[in-house]
Amino acid sequence: MKSATLNTPDKFDTSRASEYGTQSRIALAGYDACHDLAACMLAATLGNAGAAKILVVGAGGTAQEIIAMARLEPHWRFTAVDPSAPMLAAATQQLEAHQLLDRTDIVHGDVEGLVAAQSYDAATLIGVLHHVPGDDAKHQLLRSIHAHLKPGAPLIVAGNRHAYASQPLLLQAWGQRWRQQGASPDEVKVKLGKILQGADPPHSEAAVQKLLHDAGFGDTTQFFSSLFWGAWLTYKTA
C-alpha cells in the first residue's frame, strides 16, 4: 500500500473482515445513523444531480455508505476503493445481497491507482482517516481524493478525532459501551489496549479542519458525533 492509502491492508485481514460489521456497530454507537445521515447530506448537497458518480474510499467491510446512498438515490453510481482484499470481499457480498453490484465499480487498491482522468461528483471517507498513520499520509490521501473530485464537489469525512489517551472519560465510556454489549472486564481491557495502539486519529476537530484546508477543501459542517467519532461535510475549493 502507498502512503496515501488506508493503512496497511494486513491490519484488515480475513479475521477482522468477518467480524467488522458487528464490531463496528458496537464501537460506534449510531453506526447506521451516521451512514444514513451521510447519504442525506450528500443528497441535500447534490440536489437533483441525476446519475451522480460517487467515490467511496475505504468501502470494505459493510459497504454501508453505498447501501444507504443507493437506497436514497436510485440513479447514483459508485466506485468502491479499498486496499484490503478480505474487506473488499466482505463489501462485495453485502452489495450482492442488496443487488447493487451492477451500480458499483469495485477497485482493489488505493485512490492513487484510479485512472487520472476519472472525476466524481462527490466522495466519502468514512472510518478511514484515523487508521492512516501520520499527518503527511493523511494529507496525501486527502489530496488524492481532491484530485478526483469535480470543482466544488462535496466530501464526507467521518472518523475518530482526539488522541484517545487525552480523553480519559470518553475512553472509559467507550469501555462501558463494550461492557453494555456483553464484554467481560478482561475483554474490555484487551479492546481498549488495541484501540490505544492501533490507530492515529487527528487530535481535535481543529486538526481535522486543518488537514482538509491544507488539502484544498473548505470549512466543514458537522452533522454527527458519538464519543470520539465525528462526521463532517466539506467541499473542494481549490
From TrEMBL:
Ranges where the Methyltransferase type domain occurs: 60-154
Gene Ontology annotations of biological process type: methylation
Pfam families referenced in this protein's UniProt entry, alphabetically: Methyltransf_12
Superkingdom, natural source: Bacteria
InterPro entries: Methyltransf_12 (IPR013217), SAM-dependent_MTases_sf (IPR029063)
Example of a GO MF term: methyltransferase activity
SUPFAM superfamilies: S-adenosyl-L-methionine-dependent methyltransferases (SSF53335)
Keywords assigned by UniProt, alphabetized: Methyltransferase, Transferase
Protein name: Methyltransferase family protein
